[in-house]
Design a protein that fits this description.
Elements (H helix, E strand, L loop, with lengths): L1 H18 L1 E10 L5 E10 L2 E7 L8 E12 L1 E6 L13 H7 L2 H7 L1 H9 L2 E6 L6 H10 L7 E4 L26 H13 L4 E5 L16 H13 L3 E5 L3 H10 L3 E3 L6 H10 L2 E3 L3 H8 L1 H4 L3 H23 L3 E2 L16 H7 L4 H7 L2 H7 L16 E4 L8 H5 L1 E6 L2 E5 L6
Parallel strand pairs: 1-4, 5-6, 6-7, 8-9, 9-10, 10-11, 11-12
Antiparallel strand pairs: 1-2, 2-3, 4-13, 13-14, 14-15
Helix pairs in contact: 3-5, 6-7, 7-8, 8-9, 10-12, 13-14
Length: 423
């Protein structure tokens, strides 16, 4: 009896192991490592890819997923989001005010909607650059333990910022993230590290939503201190700079990426190319603010300023691409922009990239920026099984990955399936 029970148990375990194997068939596959496959199968074992091979016959006992009418691409990476910025669109409310008034614990729960929309856009990993009360850390950890469905998150906690308001009696000071001078910068970097963030973010200039001023805030010495401290703790360092001056000093200070920067001079751009500094221009986020200005209560004059900034941002991106600067796709998604995460790719094509180069900014380049180039951004043995099926050929039309996502797998689990609705 014992032997029989043991045999049954072993058969059950073997069946479970076989069931964990998936054989996913594609008519075409862009693997993120320079090869385009036709009639190919991706073999997935649990959460990882175990093989990419010509589609001959399915493995015995494997679950077969037939996506031969689609093109497979790696799960995409959005290198600049604010996942915990949520607005419920209640009439009479405005996004920024509602976000400031709500408790962070409630925000984390509601932000699942942002996470779902992000996955539906084919983005399976995000670098989240700024939250309050460590709501981003909580959201990352909930997703990692399987308690919440969402993209893989690399988070920054509080972004470092300079004092921007006078002291007021009865209010705690300084607020989270505020640092003035090298000593304070070191303290706040260590504070973020203690909160178990993945990346250190610094606001190196003014500028956000309707404000496109771009005046430098932190000095070079403060940026250098933050960069050295971040790297000393094994963290990446990202600097927000709407204008050229903060970007120039951030590059010299050793930032891993420059966010937004517009009107950069040729010397700064050349230094970025030499150092391998990533440029995350986030051109599309100002399109979002201008297009949805009524949600925010912005006037037509504000929209005009935003549209002017977009053109300057695009021209800077064009010059940076021509100079050989590495790009990563970042949407700067907030509030109702989630689900539009990949629209930045069309701006990259306008800036002179081929569709293949634009797609690389959201796959291999994004993975390299995160320091995850051996696990993310490609479809190859040993990589996470983050796979997206799109209808059409993204190497001919980058719009295919923006508008035609039909199926998404993250870590071996299907999180989006719209294939039956499109047959």
């Amino acid at each position: 009896m014992r032997k029989t029970a043991l045999a049954v148990a072993l058969i059950a375990l073997a069946s479970q192991a076989i069931a964990a194997t998936q054989y996913i068939r594609f008519g075409k596959l862009i693997d993120g490592q320079g090869k385009v496959w036709t009639n190919v199968a991706v073999v997935v074992e649990n959460d990882r890819i175990s093989g990419v091979q010509p589609d001959a016959s399915p493995l015995a006992g494997a679950e077969v997923v037939d996506l031969r009418r689609y093109t497979g691409i790696p799960g995409m990476i959005d290198a600049h989001t604010h996942m915990t910025y949520y607005w419920d669109q209640t009439p009479g409310t405005k996004p920024w005010a509602q976000n400031d008034e709500r408790q962070s614990s409630v925000t984390v729960f509601l932000a699942q909607e942002n996470a779902r929309k992000t996955l539906e856009s084919g983005v399976t990993t995000v670098r989240d650059l700024g939250s309050s009360e460590y709501a981003d850390v909580a959201m990352r950890d909930l997703i990692n333990r399987g308690a919440m469905v969402g993209p893989r998150m690399f988070v920054s906690g509080y972004g470092l910022n300079v004092t921007s308001q006078p002291a007021r009696p009865g209010f705690a000071f300084p607020p989270g993230g505020t640092a003035d001078g090298v000593a304070e910068v070191l303290r706040v970097v260590r504070q973020q590290v203690a909160a178990h963030v993945d990346v250190i973010k610094m606001y190196g200039s003014t500028g956000s939503d309707q404000d496109v001023s771009g005046y430098q805030t932190f000095t070079f010495d403060e940026m250098k201190a933050a960069s050295d401290a971040a790297h000393g703790f094994g963290k990446k360092f990202a600097v927000h700079s709407y204008g050229p001056d903060g970007a120039r000093d951030a590059v010299r200070a050793g930032a891993d990426s420059i966010e937004h920067a517009t009107d950069m001079d040729e010397q700064t751009i050349a230094e970025m190319a030499r150092r391998g500094t990533f440029y995350v221009p986030t051109i599309d986020h100002n399109r979002y603010y201008a297009e949805y200005r009524q949600q925010f209560g912005y006037s037509e004059d504000v929209a005009a300023h935003l549209n002017d900034y977009i053109q300057r941002n695009l021209e800077t991106a064009r010059r940076a691409h021509k100079a050989g600067v590495r790009f990563a796709m970042g949407s700067d998604a907030v509030f109702t922009m989630f689900g539009q995460n990949t629209r930045e790719l069309e701006w990259f094509v306008k800036a002179g990239m081929t569709p293949a180069q634009a797609l690389a900014t959201a796959t291999t380049n994004g993975a390299a920026l995160l320091g995850m180039e051996k696990s993310l951004g490609a479809l190859a043995p040993g990589y996470f099984a983050d796979i997206v099926a799109v209808e059409g050929d993204p190497l001919q039309d980058i719009g295919v990955v923006i508008r035609n996502v039909r199926w998404v797998m993250k870590g071996g689990k299907v999180v989006v399936d719209q294939t039956s609705a499109n047959r």
